Amino acid sequence: MESRGWSQLWLDYESKFAASGVANGTERKIVIECSDFDRNNRVIKSAVSELNRAFADATKEVKISFVRNEKIAAQGYKVGNIIGGSLNKPQDGDGFIIEASDENGLLYGTFHLIREKLMGRDYPDISVSCAPSNPLRMMNHWDNMDGSIERGYSGRSFFYANDEIIVDDRTVDYARFMASIGINGIVINNVNVKWAATDLITTRFFDKVKELSDIFEDYGIKLYLSLNFAAPIELGGLPICDPLDEQVKQWWKNKIKEVYDHLPNLGGFLVKADSEGRPGPFTYGRTQADGANMLGDIIAPYGGIIIWRCFVYNCTQDWRDTKTDRARAGYDYFKGLDGQYHDNVILQIKNGPMDFQIREPISPLLGGLTQTNQMLEVQIAQEYTGHQIDLCYLIPMFKEILGFKTYCKSDNDTVADVVSGRTMGNKLAGMAAVINTGNDYNWTGNDLAAANLYGFGRLSFDTELSAEEIAREWVKLTFNLEQELEDKLVDMLLRSREIYEKYTSPLGIGWMVTPGDHYGPSVDGYEYSRWGTYHRADHLGLGVDRTDKGTGYAQQYYPQNAEMYNDPHKCPENLLLFFHHIPYTWKLSSGQSLIQYIYDSHFEGYEEARKLADEWKSFEGKVPERAYNCISHRFDLQVNNAHEWCDQVNSYFYRKSGIADEKGREIF
Amino acid sequence: MESRGWSQLWLDYESKFAASGVANGTERKIVIECSDFDRNNRVIKSAVSELNRAFADATKEVKISFVRNEKIAAQGYKVGNIIGGSLNKPQDGDGFIIEASDENGLLYGTFHLIREKLMGRDYPDISVSCAPSNPLRMMNHWDNMDGSIERGYSGRSFFYANDEIIVDDRTVDYARFMASIGINGIVINNVNVKWAATDLITTRFFDKVKELSDIFEDYGIKLYLSLNFAAPIELGGLPICDPLDEQVKQWWKNKIKEVYDHLPNLGGFLVKADSEGRPGPFTYGRTQADGANMLGDIIAPYGGIIIWRCFVYNCTQDWRDTKTDRARAGYDYFKGLDGQYHDNVILQIKNGPMDFQIREPISPLLGGLTQTNQMLEVQIAQEYTGHQIDLCYLIPMFKEILGFKTYCKSDNDTVADVVSGRTMGNKLAGMAAVINTGNDYNWTGNDLAAANLYGFGRLSFDTELSAEEIAREWVKLTFNLEQELEDKLVDMLLRSREIYEKYTSPLGIGWMVTPGDHYGPSVDGYEYSRWGTYHRADHLGLGVDRTDKGTGYAQQYYPQNAEMYNDPHKCPENLLLFFHHIPYTWKLSSGQSLIQYIYDSHFEGYEEARKLADEWKSFEGKVPERAYNCISHRFDLQVNNAHEWCDQVNSYFYRKSGIADEKGREIF
């Protein structure tokens, strides 16, 4: 165990050197040519520093040239071994060239080269060029200043403790890791801005935020803050925070000037308004655009942006009310304002219309908005997908999301096109993830959950990468496995999302989780609640009718999708219960009845979870003991969880339907 | 509003004087003759002080004589107006006599006289004698030293804040109120003894506990402490707390000597062992008797007693397991040890086998044990009965409990007989309530919940009092109402328990509450949990088979009761689902089917809750505004709660059974 309290994730040079039999402390033989870039630039310095660490095992001199190439897109790079040579066993004079038009590109090219080296690709495919798919590639921290993390499953915050900001060596490592996967923006505080976090835009915290911001800047990352829309009241002592009130605007003008005086590199603000009890423009009869534009106009002179979340819905619904549909809310609130948002405002839209379930349709706002900057929000914190206890590699889900054809145009109409800015030619576009980190030794609670952290960054940088490519990269970088085990682990990752889906809520209905906590089953846990998340199961069937005869949600899509979702015979079966109320006796394409599918998938999911746990046993002695034990313990918990899900869901539906399992398995 | 921060409950002399038109500050004209008792005795001093306050409105001289009468039972009294005269309008020389064989009896007689006066009985029926039904009449506080109260619905603790003990004027008033209803023992800390509370038996807190104990002693009340069975480990640094280990015994010997050196008037200890995660003798393969007797033997020389709770069950049950039955646990664990407990040990037994539900059968341990000291535990903190939001006057329930014929003997076999010691001639016997107080102005959250506080004390002193008599006393003492409203309020109280039962869980099945919190409905909330509290509803019926064909729980009763409970045709219908799994189509004696009964009772309960709220409106201006508003607000909440219960339970069973309401009312 290293003396520091955290792992090096996919940049664990020492472990790689050890695996290849190289002694530590070898004299560095790296020579960097850097005539095109300013060697004193902070980002260039970081690139040089990282190369020195990554090539510390080189026994011969390696030459690396930084070349400016204005033809390369912003933040993109080309990497080549034009000088010739091997990454891991260089001869004297061997070398590599990294081209970019800017420093960020240079840094990303550097990490590309390092990845190749760490993956052991000795004569690697490094004659590549790569431009980032998305201009904005962001992480959203839901860290609170008391050190807790909303939906955090990896320990406490490494940014905060006891209402103070922490800046230490871990902060630097964190920035390195984020840059290494292409992240260029980080929101450091929870979107629910309360208590001390409201003071992040005051002199109480400016100095420490500036220290963080400087570290981020070293790695080409902009720091963003989540904003309390009621700050004019809470900080300014004003009676209101009406975005059209002159006093309020003046307060924000002064405040944002003050902020930029202290934090000149600040990227901007993320705002959750009028959602789940947060203040917002609705209080004053103003629109979401009124709120966002007011802040956008004020921040524009500083080059800042306003990221406005679209997670607005009625969270005090009466469960008896079958007309109101939470799924409709985003589109209903935001579509009508399309075109009214100013240029430096961007809407951040969750991938689905509900809330990060294991299976949801794509939010109809994505592409539904055609004249508004928009970015995709996903959640790698496994709130509803197993709390970083259960294995759930999410990149396959994100690939599905990005590949979804919206029909908003005749071409370039996938979600990937929309959120990258390709569809509409926006400059402000991208992807954000609610991050899954904490101060655990392994950063992500379950070591394997780091695949989602790594994967989101890589995918946001290059949406063409496949889920398998990303998984394989991460496995190669993280562990030192023989081929068979590498293949096995990649396979486990790739199967994991479907397994989790099988033993939890069926066919897109979602929820059925323990209220509040969101881990483990409670089929009726949200059924009679205020949250708008119902399965509507009765003795004949279940599912929510969101067709034109029901809540009409399906009509929020472009016609091709609307027709598909509206018809239970055309609707993708994995979303059947999201869109339709279906009898238990309904025949699925497999020939199974719905109820039999529920039984079968749950028994299978539980069985497959046990298989995962069993497969993991073959990694004993092949990965670091600490990781092995941590993951083993979590697989044990996952098996228990899958068991509970399986038996509770099956028992619930058996008791409700009275229809026995065809295969006569034990249901309680 | 008085300047003090708490009300005077049923001893509100000022309000009574004001209601009868007497000015405050009238010169006291009371003369107390006290030749038989020591005027300097602390209890006698309290009696004198209380009489002075209560007769402060007297315009003529009133003479009161304290007379020792050794023929009167311990703590009993006689009160007479043998000198003649009126309580509220005395003539010079009018007077009263209070006889007792001890100081406590004298004090209780004093309060009897005062009650009569406050109730406005001018020439009252005060030629009475009364001996307490129960030797022990106790309140159990579940107050924690951080100031929180486990299952507290009336604010924070008035005993503790921030791990310190509070002693102030409120403490004195609390002791007065408790003495006025006959309470003679108070456990001041939560049975779950953790953190700072473990230190209550150390020098850290002795001084302050002694101050509390002294105040209690002024009012004839003994202070008791809940004990951490693991104290030898946590305080003593021993590796174990095995009750048969010599080192452990020696530690307790020293500790208890130390405790009595500092707290010579301590009544003894209450122990929750081997329950819900608490430590206990089971850890060491010892019996509950081993644990209790060890402590009992050590405390005996000091005159102390050990009160040992019987709330022991498996709280990590698998919901799939239909053989294990939590209801059986108390009897299974304790019956086999009958006769093994030492003389100064008493078992404290919850009224039902589960946990303070709105309707449960009587614990078969009560009377099932025939050679063991035993006392009844009830809960006036409304954990499962409406959180002191919903009106639920519990004395009718306690009367049913006390009146239950156990058949443990040919006569004197009711629960009242058993727990008073009459059945077996025990000296150690009685009743305890988990108290419903906190530091709210009105002490009990809902002003009307004070009827349970008052009622429990009065009932434990005189189990022959009817629920109506007690309700009327409390109403007369607390408010100054005209007859019609007094009758109405008494009637509301008397109906309230049945109303609450109607809109919550039906026919004795219990639970169906929000997990953890226990307020509001969640039909399946505990159905798939580890707590052993299931309703086993499926599409055909519900209820738990506890007959000889099921878990066999019914067989724990004496034959007459066992036969009754075992047969669904003989079983009292209000307990039908506790003992039997019954189809929805089962015909009840009313002719209703079970499912129709569920629908009807829930609609009725909701309707009746609305009626209660409506009736309360007629009290506006007739009770203090503060109380009126507080109670009105709670009735509003109760109506919402009843609405949720009604709709959720009905919808749940409609969705599950598919059987429509015969009356076509709206079910969701």
TrEMBL record, chains A, B:
Keyword list (alphabetical) reads:
Glycosidase, Hydrolase
Keyword Hydrolase in record: yes
Q: Which GO terms describe its cellular component?
A: extracellular region
The Gene Ontology biological process terms listed for this entry are: xylan catabolic process
Enzyme Commission number:
3.2.1.139
User: Domain named Glycosyl hydrolase family 67 C-terminal: which ranges?
Assistant: 444-665
Q: Which PANTHER family match?
A: ALPHA-GLUCURONIDASE A (PTHR39207)
Q: What is this protein called?
A: Alpha-D-glucuronidase Agu67A
